[in-house]
């Protein structure tokens, strides 16, 4: 619980089968619910199926697939594209768990604050020594325009 008596929001993750066991365990160390795609959807599930499942079940997709950015951009349904949240891991697979552990405090804060600010995060790319975030700002609401 936080000092205000509120339980911090926990995020739920759908992890692609190409993500290392060490990276999955890091998510679980932080008390997050982690669903492994190979167990809940099946092995070799198409990327669009994973994206659809993540969207419809309010999950953050975690993958090593390099083509997920183009899949997200190519999704026809604007609602899915606008709310897609994907963490793309681009570090050395051996170091993946370690790199994710280094980034977790920032990732948690970024995800939590983006909800409060109304930011639509499209993806977070975790690289070996850097991170990239692509997001959309909320549309300005002018109270005089109806």
Topology:
Layout: E1 12-15, H1 21-29, E2 33-36, H2 37-40, H3 47-56, E3 60-63, H4 68-74, H5 78-83, E4 86-90, H6 96-117, E5 120-127, E6 131-136
Parallel strand pairs: 1-2, 1-3, 3-4, 4-5
Antiparallel strand pairs: 5-6
Describe it.
A hairpin with a 3-residue loop joins β5 and β6 (131-136). The protein has a 6-stranded mixed β-sheet with strand order 2-1-3-4-5-6, with helices on both faces. Mean pLDDT is 78; it is low at 1-7 and 76-83. It has 146 residues and is α/β, with parallel strands linked by helices. The termini are far apart. The chain is globular and about 40 Å long. It has 6 helices and 6 strands. α1 crosses α6 (96-117). 40% of the residues lie in helices and 21% in strands.
Number of strands: 6
Largest pleated sheet:
6 strands, mixed
Q: What count of helical segments does DSSP give?
A: 6
Measured on Cα atoms, how large is the radius of gyration? Answer: 16 Å
Helix content: 25-40%
Strand content: 15-25%
Average pLDDT number: 78
Order of helices and strands: EHEHHEHHEHEE
The neighbouring-strand order within the major sheet is: 2-1-3-4-5-6
- How would you sum up the global shape? globular
**What number of domains?**
1
Measured distance between first and last alpha carbons: 40 Å
Assign the structural class, choosing from mainly alpha, mainly beta, alpha/beta, alpha+beta, or little secondary structure.
alpha/beta
Uncertain runs are 1-7, 76-83
